User: Fold this.
Amino acid sequence: MPLTLVNSTCDHCGQHDDHPKIHLFTGETWHHDCMPHAVKLDVLAGVHSQHPLLTAKVIDEAEKGRHGAELREFAAKLKMRDFGKAQMNTTGFDSALENAIVTAMTPTSGTATIGTVTVTAPVMCRFDSAMTTTDSGASTEWTTSGGYTAGGVSTGTGWATASGGSRATNAAVTVTNAPAQSWAGNELWDSSGTPLRLSYGAITGDTKTVNSGDTCTIGSGSLSVAVTGH
Assistant:
């Protein structure tokens, strides 16, 4: 229960004191008996507190007239359940960070470092006949044949500026004189000595049948990487 026990100002009544207050996830600080009914309902529903039942007891005592040291003492005696770190879940990433991540994933020259991982340009787009469905799985890349060379097609500098946590190509990725294959999807890999897989995805729609000599093109803007789960 996020109690503020130091000298602070209630955002409702404006009183500055050391009475216990609840600090909402919105950044507001309220005396327990100053909260509007709608805010109180949110608190009791767990929107602003991991311990809504215990918070309800403190609110009840405050509304009965218990304040200051008495309310602090009452709150200290309540047994808080240890919810563990799994309860501290964020719901998204800052947009600037998202853009920085996808830009580092797709360097157009030199290298980019993400934590302990270094990504080396150019980013290569591999064409696959069978796609993995897991982050640690392996796809089946086309073999060197016709106009395709195993390892993929370089995307070079063909990347637009990241926006909204996504970065797309601003040039087409093309295989001319393709070998007879199935085309299930694509993967992005870097160009380091031991290539690092960066991203993967199935093509839109069903797996396509490629005939020998066909031209396979991913249109400009149709290949992108994105930070998901936000």
Observations:
- Residues 3-87 form one domain.
- The chain has four helices and 18 strands.
- The helical segments are 37-44, 52-63, 68-77, 95-105.
- The longest strand covers residues 124-130.
